[in-house]
């Protein structure tokens, strides 16, 4: 959400899966629209759709490679074959269109190209219909790629640590992976160094270290602190043994308890009775849900939340009650709406830790679980008390298991906006005072009527609502929490309708917005998706679901016209 989120980087292995989601009588290859989007900055196509090839009857991967070999000049692959230039990472069936979706990674002489992933849709007759994702061109002409002298990854880690300026307590050992990296007009080898830690303050840094010179080319932190107030000190008292033993799942009987949340409302809770103790462990969903107590320390996950009578009404229980209940609501939304089995679509457990640190004004996803601070009582109440906050943060994990949008510049703003969109849709799903504001239930508890961000009017809190007003600087990872307002406004208009910058949008309702946005994020977006590419993917997703000539396709186009994204 605005001013608080964590990008989770997950490596995808080769897999064959099936994608379900929202079905439609209109969904077939006849509804593929003809489109071609060109990325001017990279000088390469970023989204092409239509009858790209005839029917071949070939395997999907072969169809894609044949097309790319024939289109080498367009993609500027030089003398390299498509087979040498791309690695198939995943193949899955889209049950909506019956197409086979091939996910690829651009390679150069065996080294992956940072941010260059592609998605190809091949119909059941073996014809290529969609190719989404920018390809970094002319790699064989890049002088710096001819330099084979490289520092060791260990040295790159040291350079990143020195630039960081302090010695953190790592949650995960630092890593350095070699990539081909485009840095402005230059393309070079670079180590992507990842530094993940909780102390002295949580951070998940990405450093890009040039492999021959050791120069820091780029860096960003994918945990963004909410406000200066969250610099409040953590409790450094850490009991490691407690964390190891008390965090284990318990074996017992499924029970239903009750509890009062942060706002004083009573909720039903799925718990586990083990011995004479009730635990906030939900075994009733495909993905188990666990809620832990950090006891105002920085230990994760902490102690599995326990109670003696299955009534969680103590004031200290409130943050845990909401974290547990709202994680279940978010799971149910994705499962019941899109048939998605947890954040990774493979039944990953959902773990939440509350009472993290002291007066900690933040909530974040650390790569394996949710973490919630209690707030300082002025800027924030306990952050687990807002359903849209929890839906937002868990959607970051859904995104990283799907499109894996890079958390910088336009792709990062899309990442943030999609978390806002689905945080709001989860709020509507549970019908818990839903609105198009973000974080209003926990932000400035002493002042009513305000929020962190408004999707209906982003300018209310200083965010742009049109592409012409976008932030173009480097702060905030290139404006990920700011330029998200442009996409938020488009989503709001698509759901509710309205006239913006002289463009009238005919609203289609929030449920269809969810269906279109989810499909685009899982089947058309790639790691470096731009706003323009996102528009193309959303339009095609609408065509898949509702027909190429549908009112829904027209409305998606209108909504992006209204915010100046072509």
SSE map:
Blueprint: E1 15-19, E2 35-39, E3 44-49, H1 60-70, H2 72-75, H3 82-85, E4 86-94, E5 99-108, E6 111-122, E7 128-132, H4 153-164, E8 169-183, E9 186-199, E10 203-210, E11 216-221, H5 240-246, E12 253-260, E13 266-274, E14 277-279, E15 281-282, E16 289-293, E17 303-304, E18 306-307, E19 311-312, H6 318-338, E20 350-356, E21 363-365, E22 370-373, H7 387-401, H8 409-430, E23 437-438, E24 453-454, H9 475-479, H10 484-496, E25 498-500, E26 503-505, H11 510-523, H12 531-546, H13 551-562
Parallel strand pairs: 1-4, 12-19, 16-20, 20-22
Antiparallel strand pairs: 2-3, 3-7, 4-5, 5-6, 6-7, 8-9, 9-10, 10-11, 12-13, 13-14, 14-18, 15-16, 16-17, 21-22, 23-24, 25-26
CA gyration radius, whole angstroms: 23 Å
CATH architecture of the domain at 240-261 and 273-404: Roll
Shape: globular
The CATH class designation of the domain at 240-261 and 273-404 is: Alpha Beta
Mean pLDDT: 91
Number of strands: 26
